[in-house]
Amino acid sequence: MSKSAAQDGAFSITAGTAIETILSLTSIDRLDVRILLMHALSLSRAQLITQSHRALTDTEAQQVSRLFQRRIAGEPIAYIVGEREFYGLPLHVTPDVLIPRPDTELLVELALEKLPVHGSLLDMGTGSGAIAIAVAHSRADANVTALDQSSAALAIARGNAERHDVKVRFIQSDWYSALSNECFNVIAANPPYIPEHDIHLTQGDLRFEPISALTDHADGLTALNTIADGAARHLAPGGWLLMEHGYNQASSVRSLLAARGFNDVRSWSDLAGIERVTGGRISSIVQACT
């Protein structure tokens, strides 16, 4: 089969041979090919194997072609299929929210570790709801609140919470502005931290993700500073602030937390050995909320 024929949707082949054909004609890796075929044909992984000799109908061939053209153009798999797994939970995603990434699971693990029984957690800039939903799913005793400035993101997050039957309170808010005097045991945040001129913003999946959820349009530390500035007014005595950040920002984030009187300031590394989350505990010399 010629490359032009494949691009025109002329997949007069079986589901099984489609995988090898697409692999030979494109640079898409095998896992992505399988995921897209499963989505296009509405098949599970097991069904894709057991039905590998079934010939594609014209309609299916056209659907396969459309999806693969989107991937060839660079669109993220998660947006094409509308889903990404995070902390073992499938979450609906669209270009209105960031695609949840495995690195952020470290933030969830730390939040769960620091959260006391029947404790309260605030997820700042929730996006798809990944962090809040993962915590609420793991800890039914927790009181979880999630906020985001984007109404579109909140709609997606609410749908994901309903899908997994977890209780999360969602608030539309520009950081702390809508919270009044509420207190939390843990504040967790994965804010925009990529500097505005970082080359990565023009590469890969990031080209398709919401720009304001990726960068602060400055040095990458603006949102991190804003969250740290307001944390004391919303952390219960002894509460923890945990923030995800860029691969080279750990030292700067430790410094900004120490400058605001946080205790036990430290950074934690992700599975790649990169310092990915930095946090601290509200100090007794800082006025915490009550």
From TrEMBL:
Name the protein family. Belongs to the protein N5-glutamine methyltransferase family. PrmC subfamily.
Where S-adenosyl-L-methionine binds, per the record, is at 125-129, 148, 175, 190
Q: Where is the Methyltransferase small domain?
A: 104-198
Q: Which residues form the Release factor glutamine methyltransferase N-terminal domain?
A: 28-82
Q: What is its EC number?
A: 2.1.1.297
Give coiled-coil spans as residue ranges: none
GO terms (molecular function) for this protein are: peptide chain release factor N(5)-glutamine methyltransferase activity
Please name the gene that encodes this protein.
prmC
Q: Which PANTHER family match?
A: HEMK METHYLTRANSFERASE (PTHR18895), MTRF1L RELEASE FACTOR GLUTAMINE METHYLTRANSFERASE (PTHR18895:SF74)
Residues annotated as binding substrate are 190-193
Its biological purpose is as follows:
Methylates the class 1 translation termination release factors RF1/PrfA and RF2/PrfB on the glutamine residue of the universally conserved GGQ motif.
Q: What is this protein called?
A: Release factor glutamine methyltransferase
